[in-house]
Design a protein that fits this description.
Length: about 150
């Protein structure tokens, strides 16, 4: 099944950016995006001694793609499943239980900073996105597309 057709819209694209582990580099990245009229709507930082990996969802992935390439910023990208949690933390257990019951591995997960409707949401990178989306939908969860989380 095509992820685009499974969602009914464009999948959410995540960027993984590789930054030097120095004070102010994350701020510089966020300001660069803000200056290009792009907002960071989800963020996860994995730090090590030499490098920091920043995973992020943004309001305009195409602009970010171009900006990073033009500036020579090392990055990678992938699609993630974004699931809405109607009842916030109360739905977290239900979401994780559904994925566990289906024996679907979660590679990483992080929350969105904000949503227009004010509901909580999680970005999930799953072992098998199409299967995970099917499991979550069958358990009553709403999956979000890029247009759902963009301006």
């Amino acid at each position: 099944m095509d992820t685009d057709s499974a969602l009914g819209g464009e999948p959410v694209r995540q960027f993984s950016v590789f930054l030097h582990n120095r004070a102010g580099t994350l701020l510089g990245l966020v300001r660069l995006l803000n200056d290009a009229d792009v907002q960071v709507i989800a963020l996860s930082v994995q730090d090590s001694v030499d490098v920091t990996v920043v995973r992020m969802l943004v309001t305009d992935p195409d602009t970010v793609d171009t900006l990073f390439m033009e500036r020579g910023i090392p990055f990678g990208g992938c699609e993630v499943v974004v699931v809405e949690l109607d009842y916030g933390a109360n739905d977290l257990s239900k979401c994780l239980s559904a994925l566990l019951t289906a024996e679907t591995n979660i590679h990483f997960v992080y929350p969105l900073l904000s949503r227009p409707e004010g509901k909580a949401a999680l970005a999930l990178h799953l072992e098998d996105s199409d299967f995970g989306m099917s499991v979550l939908r069958s358990n009553g969860f709403r999956l979000l597309t890029q247009s759902d989380i963009t301006r």
